[in-house]
Amino acid sequence: MSEGHVLFRGTLDERTVLRGPGDPAAAVVPMRMGTAGLGLLVNDHREATRILSDVETYGSAGELMASVFDEPDQPHPDASSEAVFSVNQTDGEEHRRVRRALRRVIDARVRDVSDQLVQDVRQVVESALTLGRFDAVASIGVPIADSVMSRLLGLDENLVSALRTAVYEGYPVRELDATLVDWVRDRRAHPADDLVSDLMAELPSLDDRQVAANTRLLALSGVEVLAALITNGILCLAQDPSTQSLVREDEKLLPGLIHEVQRYASPIARGIYRMTKASSVIGGYAVPAGTLLVIGVDVCNRDTSVLPDAHRFDPTRGRDFEYLTFGRGKHSCLGIPVTRLIAAQALRVFLSGTTSFGLTVKPSELRFHDTAVMNGLVELPMWVECAN
Q: Which of helix, strand or coil describes residue 213?
C-alpha cells in the first residue's frame, strides 16, 4: 500500500474544494478568457464527464479559441478571415473524416517506430541515472519528448523548441503557425518518413494550413504533455519509497501506477475547451448558448464527491475511476496509446535501474511553469542510488 503522503502542486490543492454529493460549491466558476469574454470553469467530475460526452449540446470551441489567450490590448483576429482548425476544434463529418485519417496514420507510424522509441527512452534514462544527481526535467522528460516528436512527426530541434515555448507563452502564436505552414509545404513537395507526410498521403484534400494546424495539435500534446507526465510520475515516486519497492517487485502494478499519476498529477490543468450549442444547465446554473467552457481537468480528477479519498496518491487503487486528463469520447486525445507506452517504459527503466531515489529539495520548493493550461515542472532536482 502506498504511503499516500505525496505533495504535487500547491495551487492545485488550493483550487481543489472538498465537497460532498449534491454540494454545488465551486462546481462551476465564472472566469475571464482573454478577449473571448466571460466563460465558465467546470470543476465537477460528473458535470465535466456529461459535457464531454454530449457533443450535440457542448461542441468544439474552435471559433472562440483563437481569442482565449489574447491579451486585451492585442488586435482581435479579423472575423471575416477564414479560420483553420485542428481536429479537436471541429465537429460533425469534418471531425470524423480527419480523426479517422489521423487514427490510421498514428497507429501505423507508432507500430513502425515503437521499438526505436522504447530504445530511445532506455538510453535517455540510463544515461541520466549515471549522473547520480540531475534535473529530471532536463535530463529525462525533455529529451524523451524531443525523441518522440522527431521519430513520429519528423520535427527538427528548432521546431520542437518553438513549440515548447508556445506552450508557456499562450495562443495564438502566429509566427509559429507561419513556420509550420512553410514546413508542411516543404514536406508536401519532398515527403519524408514521418507521420505528417503519411497524413498528407492519406488525406490529400487537407490543405497546408489544415495539416499545419493538426501538426501543431499533435506536437503540443506530445512535447510538454509527455514530458510533464513522465516527470510528474518521477516526482510522485520520489516521495513514495513504498510504491517504488512495490512496482520494482511486481511490474504488473505499472499500468495502475501510470493511471494514478495521470489522475493525481495530471500534466493537463485546464486544457479542454467546449462551447454550449444550446442553452443548458451546468452545476445548477442556467447557461446560455455560445458560452465558452473550460474543464478544470486536474480538479475534476480529485473530486472527492466522486472519489472520497481523491487527495491520496494510491497506485494500487485500481482503474475504475475515469480520469479526464486526455478528455473522453469522440474528442479524446489521439495520442493516448503512445503516451502510455512511453511513460510506462520511462518509469520501468527508472525503477529497474535504481535501488532508491528522492528529491534534493523539499517538494514545496519545486516550481511549476506559470500557466493555467499545464502542470509542468520547471525543474526536478533529485538524487538516485543505482542498481548494480
A: helix
Q: If you ran DSSP here, which 8-state letter would residue 377 be given?
A: B
Q: How far apart are CA 34 and CA 65, in angstroms?
A: 10
Three-class secondary structure of residue 311 per DSSP: coil
Separation between Cα atoms, residue 226 and residue 341, nearest integer Å: 11
Which stretches of the chain drop beneath a pLDDT of 70? 1-4, 14-15, 17-25, 34-36, 62-84, 169-174
DSSP annotation of 374 reads: B
> What's the sign of the alpha-carbon dihedral 304, 306, 309, 311?
negative
Cβ distance 241 to 18 under 8 Å? no
Answer left, alpha or beta for residue 257, where phi above 0 means left and psi between -120 and 50 means alpha. alpha
C-alpha cell at position 146: 524531443
What does the angle CA 225 – CA 227 – CA 231 come to, to the nearest 5 degrees?
115
Q: What is the pLDDT of residue 373?
A: 85
d(CA 151, CA 222): 12
Query: How far is Cα 220 from Cα 334, in angstroms, rounded to an integer?
Result: 12
Cell of 32: 475571464
On whether the CB atoms of residues 18 and 6 are closer than 8 A, the answer is no
Q: Give the model's pLDDT for residue 78.
A: 44
**Which residues is 386 bridged to in the sheet?**
354
